[in-house]
Amino acid sequence: MAVMPGIKASSCFFLLRSMFITAVITPLIISCGKPSAAERTSSNAVEHTGAWLTTNGSYELDLAWKSGPQTGMNNVARLTVIPRGDATFPLQKITVTPWMTVHGHGSGNVQPVVENDDGGDATLDPAVGVYRVSNIFFVMSGPWDLKIELSNENENGSVSDSVTVPVVVPSA
Question: pTM for this one?
Fold first, then answer.
């Protein structure tokens, strides 16, 4: 094996081995965990974003996508709200606002619709609220936030709590 002057053959071997490992292993690591195109477009797929605590810790929220998140369509999610501690339930108002922080804009005049969605399921704990959030519209792909505001009014006035749920809308 011809080697450059001043470089030992063992150094060349280690350099070539490192380059091979980088070229072969890196793409495998990068693609690990990404859903296939078929999985991303499957109408039966439900993507759970996880559980989120509101700012005051009064509620725990779980958001699961029924359709989406995608650009240019009516995305639908199931929002489960679980009160913690002495949180007031049922909530009188829930608002969801899609917001793209990196560009400083929302979805224009399109407002998500939040409606009760327990589906008559008698097995659900009555203290848990299940809601269908429809009309979630993303005007472009990229990182979005769903700003969720929960509010109640009682004899002491209005009480509100909020949470921001990050969403990544993939390119079409």
Answer: 0.67
